[in-house]
Amino acid sequence: MFRKLLFFFVLAVLVSIVVYNPSATSEPAANPQDPAKEDLTRVDYPSLAGVPWRAHFMKPEQTLESLFGEEWPVVARFNRIDRRHVYPGMTIKVPLDLAAAKNYTPLPLEYPEAKRYKKFILIDVTEQWMGAYESGKLRFSAPAATGSTGHETPVGVYRIDARDRNHTSSLYQTEDGSAQYPMDNAMRFHIGPDNVAYWIHARDLPGKPASHGCVGLFDEGMQNRVYGIPEKPVLTDSQKFYAWAVGESAFPGDTGKLELLAGGPVVEVRGENPVYRK
Known about the structure:
The protein is of the alpha+beta class. It is 19% helix and 27% strand. A five-stranded mixed sheet has the order 6-5-4-13-7. A five-stranded mixed sheet has the order 11-10-9-8-12. A two-stranded antiparallel sheet has the order 1-14.
């Protein structure tokens, strides 16, 4: 008799779990507390106010390539994120019009403050974006990752005074601690009063401010060398900016090591870290 009662009690508990707790098998969603800020729809970029987009929760086995085919770079740039940092469990923004989003940039096509300079770099911290201007006109632009909260990139007007194509961090290591963090295609634009140098360089882009003050650009070639992925590098903005700003055409004889420069492009850093919506 006792065994029968125990059987019916266990059965009732199981039924109540299925009937009264359907959330256990409901559609997955980002953690409401979002401790890792994996929900990129929360990052508020002012320029997206007029751009229609939808949220997409990344499920197991999904990648940018499997979801968007050849258009995946458009979505990666839209989110300021690289392929290595897109993983199941995070939520990303997807522009409703992928064709129109190919030309998306939050920076002005003409910037009056840059007109008197042959080459001028504008870094918008609020938008997490960086642009290359020639005589005030935007030639090209790309996502960037600036300093995280507590390590904000200093705002102001500076000038690139050094380059180091094969630079590595003297303070920080890769995730597995096997090597110093690579800073390929590095361009120094400021040295703070505490003697800390700030560079523009290749780095991982996780879709939010993430550095200790430097400004990072896409470079999947560096990621392939260090992490072994992605297999076929596509996003290489750090190489493009480096060649344009301090490459051979402007400063011949690049040794690949630290070199001081005179007359490098002016760099303006403006804004403040983007707001995270609740």
